[in-house]
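Write out this protein's structure.
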Amino acid sequence: MIERLFKKKDISAILSESTENISGLKRNLSSANLITLGIGAIVGTGIFVITGQAAAMYAGPALTISFLISAIGCVLAGLCYAEYAAMIPVSGGVYSYSYTTMGEMLAWFVGWILVLEYLFACSSVAVGWSGYMLSLLDGWGIAFPKQISGATFDHLVDGSWVWTGKIINFPAVFIVGVVSSFLLGGIKQSALVNNIIVVIKVSVILLFIGFGLSYIDTSNWTPYIPENTGEYGHFGWTGILRGAAVVFYAYLGFDALSTAAGEAKNPQRDMPKGILISLLICALLYIAVTLVLTGMVNYTELNVDAPIALAIDRAGSGLAWLSPFIKLGAIAGLSSVILVMMLGQSRIYYSISKDGLLPKVFSKVHSKHGVPQNATIFASVITAIIAGLFPLHVLSELVSIGTLMAFTIVCISIVILRRTQPDLNRPFKTPFVPFIPLLGAAICIIQMLSLPWSTWQRLIGWSILGFIIYFTYGIKHSKLNNKQ
């Protein structure tokens, strides 16, 4: 029994499958597509939503330091992802990597954590999209019914859940449905839509930075590191660390990119390039936007769903012309994040199902469009339900802890694989192993420990549910073990 739990996939068999492309997925993604997919996934909620909330609740103007800490951790993890994505260019990302290094049970656990990450990422971004859409409609004088414009439930500071009196967040559900229709049309169509959106949203962000500079009030940066309230994680240096853990979520995207390796034209060459270039571009944009945002509006006022829109509105008539562009850019930008996160989520279901650990219905590929249609439909339905019912702050913290755990596992796995299979062909090599991977893992673990206990409780609950599914279904239907 124990041997079955830790049975590993043979890397050569995975590579053979990738080379022969027997999966049915179509390889249509160029290096430019991969970079824009990375930017499309990363630049979104982090800039347009989470930035304001993390500044108001945890770090103040020093959120720039939080973003820098997270960026360092992401670059270290990104180097490890790049090695894996070039070495094992198949769909499934960290799940597939873990299957080759740590065995089936731990691979399942990683895959289940990735489901958490992408599911709640899609949901939280959809909630952010709803906030900006409602703000835009309000600016146009269109009153959207309040009963269908917010979360059904809220989670209070004392740990209790309450009913808000609202039925559902309909705009959040709507955008999930729209994005899903593009994904069902095929990866080539999805990449084209994403490319257009990325050009729009990066242009809008650069406009905000450029014009916002002249509206900065430097007194808003004082104190740069607000004094700690006496509670861990609320301002001061512990607030910066907690802020880093929360905004780590903002860098989510380059790991989702690795789940699309099975659809890249030349994954060995292009996956590392797509991961690292998109990550560096986004880190610079995040830090610049945070500086301008906290300079335009005092951090204590930024705990809103649409903080950049608030900053533009506070600037007065001088930037009034930019307001609709910012909101449209945010709406477009968040749409692309949902698209890539949904793509990643469906490819995780597909990969796990292909191994028999989930029902085979999820691994069915559309004969014409070359996409896992059932996995995509399931991902959209479950995402829409969660986005419609729950508030942003609960969703984003769950995504952060899931992302950090996935990054930690990838960093540690690189060290293990270098020792156990040193002769594998590695088109891209993480430098300074084991120093870089272990430092990346340490930064991720420190940030995980900075998250609230309530977030850990939800992670533990999610993990228990995952193991129940594995031991009641997955282990009995595992193709690897049944083959043995």
